[in-house]
Amino acid sequence: MTTAASKPTPHLLGALDQGTTSTRFMIFNRAAEVVACAQREHRQIYPQAGWVEHDPAEILTATLAVIEEALQSSGVQPSQIAAVGITNQRETTVVWNRKTGQAVHNAIVWQDTRVAGAVAQLAAHGGQDRFRAITGLPLTTYFSGLKIAWILDHVPGARARAEAGELLFGNIDSFLLWHLSGGTNGGLHATDVTNAGRTQLMDLDTLAWDPSMLDALRVPVAMLPTIRASSGFFADITLSILAGTPIFSLIGDQHAALIGQTCFHPGELKNTYGTGCFLVMNTGTSKVQSTSGLLTTMAYQFQGQPPVYALEGSIAVTGSLVQWLRDNLGLIQKSDDIEALARTVDDNGGAYFVPAFSGLYAPYWKYSARGVIAGLTRYVNKGHIARAVLEATAFQTRDVVEAMQQDSGIPLRQLRTDGGMVVNDLLMQIQADTLNCAVVRPKMRETTALGAAYAAGLGCGFYKDTESLAREWSVDCIWEPRIDPAQRDRQYRQWKKAVARSFDWEES
């Protein structure tokens, strides 16, 4: 028999990280060290060109599996975990039956473009930015609102059932929270401000569902979750081996990474280098409306505190350009080989690679642009091309950073980095040279899961405050700029010329 005195003291935090391709459960100790991790991939479903779906039931099954695997592999007892945080792929849309818990359609993933026609119709009356003043977001296929409407219009009887309150909507955070906290037996239907802000249905000032947006996108209010702060008590888990453990945070993945990088002050900025890049700058309690092609979004909100806002810029092609060099051209055997190949030369030989394979994202938003390699001469070899590929990531990052500085009026002091590409030391040096500021790689690179754990820890009192977290944040490596300023300026001018060459390639 276990007595109260013999029960383990909760000294760990759990983070459920539900991403686009896989689901992970990670356990951290107080020093932000990984105690355990389990991960499972899920299927990517492509019903037709431009459509991307996930099976919500498969994601829920993977969630329960990775929780159990992480605890069993580490020997951690559920009673040792003080709280759990949930972070998730944003904008991916689920509609499910309140009585059965089953989704009425596969989840429509953030990458999916099936609502492009609806976007065009709405933009025809007021332009792409007609909703920016309310939501901070332009009209695009990314956000959840139009995906909800598509499901209600294409699943027989769904709209009437949604209006009657029989169907529930949520991004993946809400879907998992509802099931983990009881599901059909009183599961909590809630979301946080970061996820609600990516639906294009929330007013960024009031942090409430906006009636005019619900009307414009034709979404019934009866199916929407309650909006809460990102950090604070949500519910106790009733499903899985963690039954009885409280959930103390919900937060979108890029916002979680901002917290994991301890970017708690205005002007602090992180860049996640993956298939593409996501740059998020903390702008404090002031909402900055972008005039430079960026998204105005929530950074996070801790319970009992005012909301913190951010500017966000996304780059479509960075790590995937390295994969293209590997798979389409065969210049390297594996992605890691690009650093060694790029180091065979001292510069790009005058070559610039603009990877506008399907248009350019922030800050240009040129959908008719296409990829170009400019400045080729007989002198250029495969090493120069490899170098130009890495520089493309650095130059695109500078484009977004300059837009952020223009919008916010806040100068950049340093860039904090995470994601798969940051193991490339040459890329990090090129980035520092291009930005003319320090580039910092932290020791803990799993910043998304760590941010969810930090938010849960702040919510339940496991951590005292954000300043204590910032003091514990540890650096792996710092790169300082070491390029000649005249050379930096010339290279960036050449890059901008190459970008201009990519514009309007598609005539449609």
Describe, in plain words, how this protein is organized in 3D.
With 508 residues, this protein is an alpha+beta fold. 33% of the residues lie in helices and 23% in strands. The protein contains 16 helices and 23 strands. The strands form seven sheets. Strands 17-18-16-15-21-22-23 form a seven-stranded mixed sheet. The chain has a six-stranded mixed sheet with strand order 3-2-1-5-14-13, sandwiched between helices. Strands 4-7 form a two-stranded antiparallel ribbon. A hairpin with a 4-residue loop joins β10 and β11. α9 packs across α14, α10 packs antiparallel against α12 and α12 packs across α13. The protein is globular and about 70 Å long. The N terminus is likely disordered.
